[in-house]
Amino acid sequence: SGLGLMEMDYCTSRTISKRMRRSPRYEVLHWLFRTCEVTSRVCMFVSFMVTTRQHAPWWWVPLAADFVITIVLVHVFGGAESTWLVRLLCSLPCVFANVFAFVDSPYKRRAARRISLWMTVKH
Predict the structure, then answer these.
(1) Cβ atoms < 10 Å from Cβ of 12
(2) I need a surface site. Which of 12, 32, 55, 75 has the fewest CB within 10 A?
(3) What is the average per-residue pLDDT within 8-32?
(4) CB atoms within 10 A of CB 91
């Protein structure tokens, strides 16, 4: 997952792609950052689900609520994304990582920064 996010960041950000081409060290650090981001979120959800599954019938609610909140944030702050399929496809990985953090396209920059701010607050 960290490699996939790193590749996505490389493709959506000129700044990141320039830094990665210049410095293998930056590439490793960026991969480590993205891998830790996903690992920490997955561990948080899994540990909650494992510890509460035997005691509470609502063990799945935090993950579902996080997904619903993410869909709402993508809908409200997502910019020009008009179809629900695109919103859903953007929201699913956002439950575990802030995929908008490194978008620097002139057409998507403003929306990406707004949604990235709210994703940071949510996480």
Answers:
(1) 18
(2) 55
(3) 91
(4) 22
Question: Which range has the worst mean pLDDT, 12-16, 41-45, 109-113?
Answer: 109-113
CB distance 99 to 5 below 8 Å? yes
Average pLDDT in the chain: 86
Paired tokens of 89: 């496809």
8 Å CB contact between 111 and 79: yes
- Banded model confidence at residue 74, pLDDT cuts 50, 70, 90: confident
Comparing C-alpha atoms, which of 8, 58, 65 is closest to residue 38? 8
